[in-house]
Records
---
Amino acid sequence: MSTEFTLSAGGYTAVVTARAAALRVLRFDGRDLIVPFPAGGPIPDYRGIIAAPWPNRIADGKYTFDDVTHQLPVNEPERQTSLHGLAFPLDWTMKESDAGSVTLTCTVGPTAGYPFALELSARYVLDESGLHASVTAVNAADVVAPYGVCPHPYLVAGPSPLDEWVLEFAADSFLEVTPDRLLPLSLARVAGHEFDFRAPRGIGSTEIDHAFTGLTFDDGLARLSVRDPAGTGVGMSWDESCQWLQIHTADKPAPIPSRIGLAVEPMTCPPDAFSSGTNLIRLEPGAEHTASWSIYAL
């Protein structure tokens, strides 16, 4: 059973697991703000994990970096991709903890397909304004390392079905993907498309599993809100290190429960960035990179 840490402050409660440094529970006044998962077992659908050293998927698990080709293990066999990095199966180590915060660390690599070494640190802090999280990566080797990161929470607006939730986030483009493998094709404008949520509107039956960019940052933060017609809601903000945003309506084939939350994943780079190089972080030896985000009740 994975060790976990319970935080509380200002009406908020959070539970963070050592496995994957995952956010297992986040509640405000007893109301779930994310889709939780049971303690002690596997983490379903990558809920709440830290996806590093890459977010999303790499086609065929194969990429070339600085003229060297690498082959990662394929962990999404139905699409023949390497999904969500290497940190999620790991048990992270607690560095420091108190009633309202916890910092967990782990080492990623060198391993098959990723002959680099990163020291990762995930910090979660609760206060009266919500949950504030950050991930810092330090290159612990003597060669440049490719890197990307994202969190993977499934937000819950309230008790109504997801189709009735009202979504708003400012992005001007989305990445079209292949229907079978969800691999990048080309950027398209959201204007006139069902993926245009620059003004608040209901999600309805729209199915989304796409990356968005052209985000609007106000005072250094991009923001998303999702609201339930019952009157509750949840918001998320993130800093300019994350120029991409994956949105997924969590569609599942019957009889699996479907559309039970909205995955909101601020990403430092788009899907398959290890292959395309788009917004890929080149982490120099000894250098560090930090991405941060917050989740809060509305």
---
Amino acid sequence: MSELPDRLPTADDVARMTPGERIFHYRNVLNYSQPDLVGHMRLIAANYRGTGVDRRQISRWETGRHTPDPYSRHLLALALRVTVADLGLPPNPYFR
């Protein structure tokens, strides 16, 4: 089991994080596991008659190996209850 940090990240700490680190941070703030996040994103995707993602994609985003596509950014932001800009990603002009 990993140890808890000495303190919570400040706004400046979050501003210095990479998009992958921000995804990981906001997921942990909500106490979501990767499968939990996948489930939330799939529920949201169903409202758009679209598809969700799988756990491997979440892992790739968090490690910085890949960046979410514009549609996935939107789902991710909704599932994490933040804006796409909060994730450090460019917005999708087709979603608000």
---
Amino acid sequence: MSFDDMDVGTIWLDGEFVDWADAQVHVLSHGLHYGTGVFEGVRCYDTDRGPAIFRWGDHLDRLYASGAPYEIEIPYEREELTDATLELLDREDLDSAYIRPIAFYGYDMLGLNPGDCPVTTAIAAWPWGAYLGEEALEVGVDVSISSWRKYKSDQIPTNAKTTGPYVNSVLANLEATRDGYDEALLLNADGQVAEGPGENLFLVRDGEIHTPGLAESNLDGITRRSVIEVAENLGYTVHDDATVSRGELYTADELFFSGTAAEVTPIATVDDTPIGSGSKGPITDEIQQRFFEIVETGEPAEWFTYLE
């Protein structure tokens, strides 16, 4: 959905709430030219106990950690960002929302070294349903293996959620959708399975769950962590440092994506090859149901930051 189709209101920008249309930065901002910014994607859910942000503390931890390799020092304390986000949701009267905090080098000069460029910090929130579509949560998505490879951690930090490197994901998604698929899967530089453009991957085989390890060039997804804990609590063995070959995808019993936007989305086909029965598998369904039960009930409470 385009922002033009939404009833948008305000954005928190550098300590102030400003009208959505006035949340602007200079065209010569360092982050615009070189991708020197870090961000998070977070969801607020309308739980049985009221609106609550899912694993906000973990997202903040990753936001600050992502800035470290780029020497981005976010000029606000965690409590300030938390208070700003809670007030923003209240101002916008949002019971459920997607939240986007971002910090990037702003306007001062355009050498590669950001030098004295100030760090601009902003938080926006808006309604956003299932990223890959509501129907996809039930029937699954059709995925293709991208011709683009995921970069290695000795090229760009793979465990930092950085704006610039997401052009890698953009290329993969553009290729997949242009070819008629819902989403892509990227292999790493060694030809092993990495992740989706904006999702982590899980594979089910013989009743056990495998997910490519962080050493395979993957982001340490917050929803990935949640799915691992959910699956283990349901009694499943989870191999969270797996190396998954391309060939293993086609013979998997089940595959599914996880992510803040994608939540828990089954994969129906890879390169037109049906996965398992070609629809949502029973283990994926059980994990998905438990995940949505958690975000509906707001339990465990330590995973949620409530608006009130």
